[in-house]
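Students often ask why inverse folding is considered easier than folding. One informal answer: many sequences map to the same fold, so there is more than one right answer. In these notes we will look at a single instance of the problem. The structure comes first.
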């Protein structure tokens, strides 16, 4: 108990020190900031306009707009990037109405909008829906058949991307939908050496509502008096009744080791002051759940709370533009029992620098999908990623009549009409 008390005193002193060190200089945010150095900063501030042209397929509304009319909750959940990317592209200066001059082709399919009563997406119809859309564009336009999708991109924000399942074991068993094997996938899921992540994919942040977050901003001189903060599940009793599978046991380990530690403000209760609390915290835990990613990563960056990333082999959003090693803390899942010692051992000057980088407005902007879009936001980072893949290699273009993809591959249920 004496040791815990000593650590708590240390944490309070650190809070005060960090608070005292970050106040003022950027007139807009009231915090001293630091520009991202090297190529990452240049990439983050790239302007994709003029570097690529995108043709947006016009699909029947049953693939997109009618789905939202049926359930508008899709507009606010963490998978909504597929909806807002479509809306952004319709009025973006990179859009071309002439497919002959397009560098990329985009198919607007909302595959995460079949929701349960609890608001969670059911992925079971998604493969059939995606196959149906691809069959349509392949039969109506000639562009898919030229490359079998190699110059097409799809936004697939499911837990495990185009594997279309929320449980990892079953997602791995399914694999990426065969018809998407040559396409570029824009997805929230990212984990190294995983069957659900292709090498050429673009990993993006999950959707977090920008207006709602902005409405909960606290004064910039607010003291960060919470050392470690987390709100969320530690166990998923409904889907993992025996425990140990959910979050690979990492969340359970956080609770079992630190539920009584005064350094840790952790609970399953999600208060109305959640956003404000994050702005009063120095460290915000971002552990894996069923998938490695969650909106906490976005919230932590936007609110200047140092993200503590607990997800082995995670591939983070826009990793070529955002210096995650500089702004976050990475803790191996096996080291969770030592979390308190790891965080209290970080020197104050290192914490200060992470906070200065997090205070950089361009860092926050890159994690958000605002409406209307703003320069440097997540929409533009996606376009930057697509622009950097150009020009397409000539080997991607097929000979007339040549086929590479197997249109009858995959589970039998996926082959049923949608």
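Output (designed amino acids):
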């Amino acid at each position: 108990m004496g040791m815990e008390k000593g650590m708590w005193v240390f944490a309070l002193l650190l809070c005060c020190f960090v608070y005292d060190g970050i106040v003022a200089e950027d007139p807009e945010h009231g915090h001293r900031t630091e520009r991202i150095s090297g190529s990452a900063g240049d990439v983050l501030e790239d302007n994709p306009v003029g570097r690529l042209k995108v043709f947006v397929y016009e699909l029947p509304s049953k693939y997109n707009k009618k789905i939202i009319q049926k359930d508008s909750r899709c507009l606010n959940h963490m998978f909504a990037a597929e909806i807002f990317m479509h809306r952004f592209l319709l009025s973006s200066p990179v859009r071309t109405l002439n497919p002959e001059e397009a560098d990329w082709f985009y198919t607007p399919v909302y595959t995460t909008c079949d929701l349960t009563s609890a608001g969670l997406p059911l992925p079971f119809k998604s493969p059939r829906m995606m196959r149906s859309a691809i069959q349509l564009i392949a039969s109506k336009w000639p562009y898919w058949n030229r490359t079998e999708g190699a110059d097409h991109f799809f936004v697939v924000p499911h837990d495990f991307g185009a594997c279309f399942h929320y449980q990892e074991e079953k997602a791995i068993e399914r694999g990426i939908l065969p018809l998407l094997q040559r396409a570029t996938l824009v997805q929230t899921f990212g984990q190294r050496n995983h069957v659900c992540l292709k090498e050429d994919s673009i990993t993006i942040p999950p959707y977090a509502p920008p207006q709602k977050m902005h409405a909960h901003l606290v004064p910039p001189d607010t003291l960060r008096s919470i050392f470690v903060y987390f709100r969320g599940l530690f166990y998923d009793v409904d889907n993992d009744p025996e425990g140990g599978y959910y979050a690979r046991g990492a969340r359970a380990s956080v609770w079992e080791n630190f539920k009584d530690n005064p350094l840790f403000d952790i609970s399953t209760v999600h208060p109305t002051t959640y956003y404000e609390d994050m702005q009063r915290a120095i460290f915000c835990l971002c552990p894996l759940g069923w998938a490695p990613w969650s909106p906490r990563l976005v919230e932590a960056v936007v609110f200047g709370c140092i993200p503590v990333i607990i997800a082995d082999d995670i591939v983070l959003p826009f990793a070529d533009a955002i210096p995650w090693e500089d702004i976050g803390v990475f803790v191996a899942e096996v080291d969770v029992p030592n979390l308190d010692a790891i965080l209290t051992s970080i020197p104050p000057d290192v914490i200060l620098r992470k906070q200065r980088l997090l205070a950089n407005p361009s860092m926050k902007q890159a994690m958000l999908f605002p409406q209307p879009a703003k320069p440097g936001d997540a929409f533009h980072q996606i376009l930057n990623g697509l622009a950097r893949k150009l020009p397409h290699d000539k080997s991607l273009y097929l000979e007339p009549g040549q086929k590479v993809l197997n249109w009858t591959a995959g589970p039998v249920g996926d082959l049923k009409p949608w």
